[in-house]
Amino acid sequence: MKGHRLVLGFGILSLGISLALTLLILATGMTLLTDHFHPGARSIWPVLIFTCVIGGLSCVILSVLQFVQLGALQSAELNATVREAQWSEALLAWAYAEVPLPGRLDEAGVQTLLKLRDSLSGEVSDRLKTLYGAQGWLSRDLRLLTRRSTPVVVRAEAIERLALLREPLALDALDRELRHRHPEIRALALLALSRSVGRLELHRTERTLRVLALHGAIIRGEFSVGQVQEALTLLGEAGRLLAQELLLGAPDTLRTATLDVLARQRTGALHREVLELLSSPNAELRAGALRVLVSSAQVPAESAKTVLKLTEDPTAFVRLQATKAAAYLDPVPTERLWNLLGDPHWWVRRAAAQGLLHVPDGERLLNDAVARHADRYARDIARTTLQEHGERQLKTHLTLQPVRPPLAYAPGST
């Protein structure tokens, strides 16, 4: 902190000198204009010489200050790194070997403790959390969040510390911050609460209440789509309830975002809610639901008719996801995939060819498509897919070849 204040002081001093130099240049310009419009005025050479000398000195001083500022910044970063390493060693020795700490935790010690708490688990992590509270930092953070007069930056720093700490006693305070008047504080509270609920071993009832509180804040429309997606990701397994609630009653934008998170998590949960969205009038929801099924590689048999119907959807990106999903049906609808080789959309044709390639008789079907499919573009995509498949097999074969050691050279041998 001291190093950063020094850097700030150098910056202010540099700014002052720059402003003074600018005023000096303006004054010189005014003097030259005065001499131009009033030829009888006194000589301007003393003014020009004075300006050049002062300007040169100012440039030298500014250059020196920049070097000093850079050195101070590097020194501050080095000192912070050293302090963090020292506190890391001391805290680990205290946690594992009961070695006394060198003193009370300062700001560097607190930041190091929180990083260790976030990266470790088990008893050692819990001891670090207890130490944070025992030295008064937890109560300090909670007091900062309770006061209405706490500056936004200080409040944000307290929320970030509590997010790393993951303390059950701080959940109520974070819950209250979801209603703060500043959107930045609300967003930080959302992510901190999601992170804590997702990683703490809470009772099922309390976990449900916390997730429902998050759902209420999200439904009020106080967060962006990206923030909601990040909250769902941070919640982990606890996010299933929130995802379920959002899929059932949230606006289409949030439901689409929720489907995107489920697809990235490759989860097979919430299939009932996902399958209901296959019949949505919103094309993005239909495509999102199909993407969840594809990513989980699980397409329930009861959805087969709906999936096949969606391969004829007027929206290209819905047909694309439906074609990918059809490849996971049992049995695979090879006739429908054959017809989709002639789809107007290139990505749909490619997905159909990839789907045919992975059935037991796929290569023969694609060869038949190359030879006798009625659509020229279908023949092209089948040929391209077979070529790419052959190249991949060749590379795999070469990769799996055993590496033979070179023959040893023996002197005198032929």
From TrEMBL:
The chain crosses the membrane at residues 7-32, 44-65. It comes from the Bacteria. Pfam families: HEAT_2 (PF13646). Keywords: Membrane, Transmembrane, Transmembrane helix. This is HEAT repeat domain-containing protein. It comes from Deinococcus marmoris.
